[in-house]
Amino acid sequence: MNVREAIKEWLQYHHISVVFGNPGSTEIPFLVDWPEEISYILGLQESQVVAMADGYAQASRMPAVVNLHSQPGLGHAMGALMSAKRNRTPLVVTIGQEDSRHHIVEPLLYGNLAPWASTVSQWSYQPTSAEDVVPALERAYHEARRPPGGPASVILPMNYLNGQAVWNPRREIDYHAMPDGMEDLAGILNAAKFPALVMGDEVDKEDAWAQAVGLAEALDCPVFGAPLSMRVGFPNRHPLYQGILNPVMSGIIQSLSPYDVVLVVGGPAFLTYPYIPGSREWGQTRVYHISSDPEYLARSMAAQGYCGSVRVAMETLLTKIVPKEPELPEVELWEAEQKSAAARERADMGSDYVLYTIGQNMPPDTIVVDESVSHSLLLRKILNFTRQGSYYTASNGALGWGLAAAAGIQLAQPGRRVMAVVGDGASLYGMQSLWAIAEHRLPIVIVILNNHGYTILKSLTQSLYPGHLPATPGLTVQHVNFVRLAESMGVRGSKAENPSDLEWQLKEAWSSREPYLLDVQVDAEIPKLL
Amino acid sequence: MNFTVVLPPSERVAEQAGLLQQLLAGHRIAVVLTWEEQAQALRTTDILVSTAFVPVTREDILSAPQLKFIQVAGVGVDHVDLEAAAEKGIIVAAVAGANAESVAEHVIMSTLALLRPLIASHGNLKDGRWDLPSWMAQAQDLAGKTFGIYGMGRIGQELAKRLLPFRVTLLYHDLRPLPPDQERLRGLSFVSKEMLFQGSDIISLHLPFTPELYHTIGAKEFSAMKDGSILINTARAELVDPNALIVALRTKLLGAAIDVLESEPPPPDDPLLQMPNVLLTPHGAGVTLQAQNRIAQDAIQNVLRFLDNRPVDNVYVGGSS
Ligand SMILES: Cc1ncc(C[n+]2csc(CCOP(=O)(O)OP(=O)(O)O)c2C)c(N)n1
Ligand SMILES: [Mg+2]
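YS: structure for the whole thing
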């Protein structure tokens, strides 16, 4: 069997039915004789290819396969690969390379790719022969899943694909370790006077909401959302839920200082932005941290870390915690607060109104992809997240991820509706993904919160250098016709300039079962940041 | 026709009487100020323009053989014996909504005056005490608070509209919720009576009084209320158990604004008069100068409709129209 054929068999062996890519001449050997059982999803720019695969891998909870074009393709993909690495998303990245027989003369498409790829990968490798290719892919598959998870890159000189393939024994690896020390931790939690929990992204990634709610109710303690988390780790309408921690260290310490024991479950402890001077001392509070990511633990702000699956950890803790009788307040007033705020801001198309109206119109099971930047905090407060796997955002603030990720998530989860809420600025880093969305008729509702520029950067300028905003260039983006952009790529669109537009267009968008883009002219007021 | 017009005791009686003479030219008008004067005049009266200050009893109605129409120059008809009027085929009408804005403003004034120690600090200053520290320890914003409106009729709705810009959360309870679209536009959330009392920082009563509602706000409701919350009653005194109110004012409430008392004026030993955290007004929430004019105009318009054989508005008794 030649390597071209063997690669396709290898894909099918791992039940990989979708490959994301953007080809060049070095990828033609990879693409010829493509089997019908595997979809090749073409993205029109490599950052979009990788972000689609990222969304797909996260939503399917399996490594996704990406095919990139040598140094130009890898170059474009670098930012998105960095995001995937930071997201801990398992990707097998194949990168085409010139025929090995003329590397020595540095032909047109040649690049010394391994060093680049290594900076954005958990593992990267250029096979030294044709026989080496399938074993390298097999290893990449396991390297990508190795905790914490991330891209694993294999560089494929095009001539190797014509050689004879060799199979190596396939392996199944269960990386979900049971963390040690749960007995002690349960004792600490049982003895705590005022415990609190912080739920991070791994709770969602491991489908462990039930365990998180169980633990919170057994302890009858407040639960915070991890700051700047890429997932929602706890139902945001649960009576014990306190909202997301402010992502500055002094704010985190202040919010958690009333508690003697704080347990951070999953994700980094803590992700912060921007820098605010102040002490990083905890006072009386003792912080404990469980994560399957050794790196998160190594740089954690916690006094003690436990490495392993957060789901298994919480399941174990639940058997050892002496449950309290939670006295949960019957009705939440959140909804009422948001309803009043929405009505108040309706005339101005204010953020509270726009997000409330978006929330009221989205079906209960919707998956939300958030690249709404200055609106993100409000979005996580106002929209209802009552089921796990309903919220995705890039963990490193990289823009241009959202539209593509939404496409990947919708491909992986055809049974659920997907909504991408993106800033006008953010959307323009990844507009090409509208084409893929239209080609595959993915019924995604795309909401552009259009405030004509980089509002969050204006807010930051105002607070760092008060009064200097008028003389700061590069923060305004006007004159983009989003509806025509969408239509040019085959996506229906409309512009919502006032509340009645917004209300009927949202209804239209959700009922259409086709991709639909709304250009929402949200109030361009510059919110106070610090 | 013979008119009897009861005017409230005010400095403007003469002016108002003159105006009436003009508007109802060609008719005989008796202007009265007291119940005795009214009783005397009713014997030959066809149309009575009544106000809540002077009751219209069964005896009054029975001793008015020509009486056909009672127009109340006000929003309530509790002072009229409606049964007797019905028996005699007399039409009774009132004015609706003319005071809603005034009451709504009064509630907001009271809320703000209680959230900041307005009365006390004004008194202190006049007594020569510059008590900034105590002001700073007490003065609160309305913004961010949860405001509960019990009764979502005209006044409740006018109040809600005016409160929304204060950046408050609005809850309400009523027998009938508003349609969802209305709620959404006004930022109002319907909640149970229990939740209204548990969840609100300020509660204002705007429900009509019926006998089942006697002392409907009692010890149980006060115990559900938040510490440091406020009760405002501009509706009817009988809605609130006064003893429970006194206890709550002593133990948990920040304050109360009371515009309606079971006996008006209150006896000098009414314990409410001694409470430092109560704001009292003489049943005047709905009778600003502007409201009085609106009420007078609406009443006169109804009388003119009656004289013209057109249907009258806000009929409580009779009137097939
Ligand atoms: C790839 C990339 N380039 C630049 C930035 C810097 N950046 C952060 S926020 C932002 C502006 C976002 O504007 P928009 O999406 O319209 O959201 P808004 O703040 O206006 O709501 C930019 C450019 C980034 N995060 N990622
Ligand atoms: Mg913007």
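YS: worth flagging: The first helix of chain B runs from residue 13 to 23.
IM: good catch. Also Residues A 423-425, 451, 453-455 surround magnesium ion (ligand 2) (CB under 6 Å).
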